[in-house]
Amino acid sequence: MKHVSLLALLPTGATAVTTATGPHAAPGATDLAAHVLSHERFDAAANAPSPRPDYKNVHVADVMTDEYVFPLGDTGKSIVLSGYQIAAGFLAERAADEWLELARQQHAAAGGAADDGTRHVPDPAEADQLMDRALESAERILAPFETAPVASLFETHYRGGREFLRLSWEGLPEDLVPKSRRPAVALKTAAALAPASVKQDYDPYGLEGTSDYDVDKPLAYREKIGPFLLTMTYRHEYPQVDDERLGTAFAVFHEAGTDIVAAALELKLVKVPPLQSSADLVYVLDTYSGEMLSLALAATEALGPERLCSVFNAYRVVYISMWEVRKPWRGQGLGVALLREALERLPADSDGRPDALCVAPEPYQTEARYLVQLPPALRRELDVPAQRLTRHLSEWLDRANLQNVKTHFFIPMAKHEGIGSAGENARLIDRIMESEA
After folding, report:
1. Which value, in Å, is the radius of gyration of the alpha carbons in the chain?
2. What is the mean pLDDT of the segment spanning 152-167?
3. 257 shares its domain with 356
4. Are residues 211 and 105 part of one domain?
5. Are 390 and 337 in contact (CB under 8 A)?
6. What is the DSSP code (8-state) at residue 170?
7. Which residue range(s) make up the domain with 261?
8. Number of folded domains that form the chain
9. pLDDT of res. 60
10. Are residues 126 and 181 in the same domain?
11. Same structural domain, 252 and 192
């Protein structure tokens, strides 16, 4: 193969803060560190494996200069390599696999058959340099993070200095966010006092005399609460269904003077037909979306089949799908304040069910795809923010006196989020279905 350089397929320093999302996507520092940490740490002085008891004061450079047991395929033998060497091997193997795939594609494009016995071999000089250049590449990718705590690589809590994990809050549909929205009583008073020629400024979906929370119309209003404007919208996800099964409520705090988004919240209101088993919940929610399927699986894991049925049969489950606070306001209770305002203003359930608040704290600290690779001690440390959030919200809910929220529960959503009904998750779904058939 003459036109593709093996060494050119190694990532450069420009990929230092990226994370791989495909088989040949350029890995970043987090991918390399997770791969290294998936190996057993070795203590040369004791001449034996020795995992770290904790990672509280451990930096990325410490992890990469540690030595690890590296198994030699299926031979049962192993050697000891440094973290940097293991990372370099990861990059070299990735580059070689990508090169071979490109070579096969080029061979096929030239009319060659896949089974014609052609051997694809890279340039020998480049192959000799591969490991040395891969080591340089790994060092470049990890260099900006060497002095950072290793746990910080796996914290997705506003990683990269971004204001929000998802910026879609900046683009709420304008027709659902009118310039002002006042309660119906205030509207009637203003209409009575205002001259007939003055144009009223209110929700285009609202009609005088109707409820602010009419389930047949999208809810869209704005009112001033302290220094913030609360904007809230509500919609049925499946309006063609006669009874309300799934709704989405958006609540946003804007800074009153500048209209900058200060905090944002998305709630999924989930109501299902009577359940006989967790398999029923998986079946129903899988028809809605991948997120709802993940909710079903995570709730099954958290509650167990028996309590799961009692909760979903007796309550309308309000799941916190997204919950963000912009940097200048973090740590000041603004997120909880927005949650309270949104919960108090949710449209009442048409069947009179009380609400059960469902919280998944894990997305606030680490990405699920790295969890299985990390040592148990590091996983426990990454669980601390979720445990802190769980305690804080439990204590708050116990004293918040929210009229319609009668219970709450926490789910391990990060283990299931985004995995859909294929791959590894298919086996979990099969087990649920078979156990309760």
Report:
1. 27
2. 52
3. yes
4. no
5. no
6. G
7. 167-435
8. 2
9. 94
10. no
11. yes
Inter-residue contact 60 to 147 (CB < 8 Å): yes
Predicted confidence (pLDDT) at residue 121 exceeds the cutoff of 90? no
Overall average pLDDT of the 368-386 stretch: 82
355-359 and 405-410 strand pairing: parallel
CB 35 within 8 A of CB 91: no
Which DSSP string do the residues of 94-129 spell out, in sequence order? HHHHHHHHHHHHHHHHTT--TTS-PPP---HHHHHH
Q: Are the C-beta atoms of 13 and 87 separated by less than 8 Å? A: no
Q: What angle do CA 142, 131, 128 make, to 5 degrees?
A: 155
For residue 150, the number of C-alpha atoms closer than 13 Å in the C-beta half-sphere is 29
Same domain, 272 and 411: yes
- Residue with more model confidence, 130 or 163: 130
Structure tokens at 110: 């030239």
Provide the token pair at 437: 């058939």
Both 277 and 406 in one domain: the answer is yes
Per the CB < 8 A criterion, the answer to whether 382 and 370 are in contact is no
DSSP letter assigned to residue 59: B
Residue-wise DSSP of 133-158: HHHHHHHHHHGGGTTSBGGGGG--TT
The residue out of 154, 183, 209 marking a domain boundary is 154
Q: Examine the domain organization and report whether 94 and 209 are in the same domain.
A: no
From edge to edge, which strands make up the β-sheet containing 355-359?
A: 219-225, 228-236, 246-255, 261-270, 316-325, 355-359, 405-410
Boundary of a domain, candidates 120, 154, 188: 154
> Is residue 162 situated within a structural domain?
no
> Residue 435 — pLDDT band, cuts 50, 70, 90?
low
Quick one: 180 and 76 in the same domain?
no
